[in-house]
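Team,

Forwarding the record for the chain on the shared tracking sheet. I've put the sequence and predicted structure together so nobody has to dig through attachments.
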Amino acid sequence: MKRTITLYFCFFLLIFNSKFLIFNCSAQSGYQIRVKNEIITADSLFVYVYNVKEKKFTPFHSLKFEKDITLKNSIPLDAGIYTLVADSMMLGEFIISDPKKQKFTISFNENDVEFEGSIENSANHEYMKQMMEFSHQMSLLNMEFQQMQQKELPNSMMQVYMDTFFMKLDTLNWEKRSYQEKVISENKGTLLASIIQCSMEVPPPPPDYYRNQIQMLTYLSSHFFDSFTWDDERLLKTPVLYNKFKTFVQQISYLDSEITIPIVVKALGDSKKNKDLYFALFDFIELYFGNYKSPEMRNEQLYLAMLHDILTIPDLEETKRQRYEYEINILDRNLPDTQAIDFNILLSNGDTTSLYSFEAEYLILYFQNPDCPTCSEFREKLKNIEVLYHAINSGKLKVMTVYFESNEELWRNYLEKKAFKNWIHAWNYDLQISENHLYDVRVIPTIMILDKNKKVIKKDIFPDELEEWIKRNL
């Protein structure tokens, strides 16, 4: 009997403890953020969260503004950066790293903002103030440098000043980096630590790199992600990721493909520590260099290298795999230093022939739709390039417009009213270009330069690039 009572009592304690644990977990779940303010008057308080798709902060919660107000919910906030806005006035931000640490107080007073119950947010607030101080010191240093340049000192004196300037610059950068490393060390495992680490600047290169923009950009791009925390997917809910990727794209846009490709492929390889971050980086770079609707920055060689990299992912979604394989199939054709694909054409004089039967020392292929506004604009720009006009008259170069769609009446109307007399005008009457995807003409106009053997010299170039090429080669 005693044994039965003892077992029953133990079972009761087990049930009681389980309920107590469940109650405690429930009490700790969700968020409870108290906002106290002594100086601001407003009607509403908004909480904004960083929206990854829209790449901006968007409101997700609002309530009537009071001097002492508590934001709370039983469901915890996602990790990320949040901002508080009184009506339309930005009050400040707070960071959420851990679903279990979402109870703290933010106090706004005349002198400062204080966080109680959140070591991470207190550290973030102090960090931002210190970064502003470093930025101020850097501005003063730059002003000093500009003033010294205006004095037109002798070379010997200027060299002494330059040595001193770089010494001050190195010292300031060292102090800033040391401070950042200290804050990271004191906040290990937090989103704040990852944000700071990802925001750290590349250490300055040797002074002689500053004299060569390409050398400088190559150095910066090669080391751009050295400190990046690719294993922290919480960064997706912050603007840090977007700003970092945007700066990276801007830097590599000035570099040639042979420099850019290994840099990008290495970054993609490093980012594979987290699949979501890998796709975020891939999609961002693709938007600028792979998107056929972005011709000004489009880089087919770089995009091909990226496509080959992403297809190595073993569990890639089938729809994505099919799209990327299609892109490779299109882009692999008519690359520079390869033979252009032959196609049949009807000329304006009624002769039928083919690309390879048409003779020219150099041939510009101009794929277009006669009524396309951009095509008309480009035609006018080409027509007004003086070196192109002289190259055509000398017989060294010919321009062939190529219409590849089915509206013969549209093409013949173009011949009658818009076609330039010293250009060749052709129609791919059997429509093989579009039906068999012989050329990537998803965006028109598309301009290519071929040599006399129909080997591709340049692809997807603009009128100003064509003008420069003619000046250098003809």
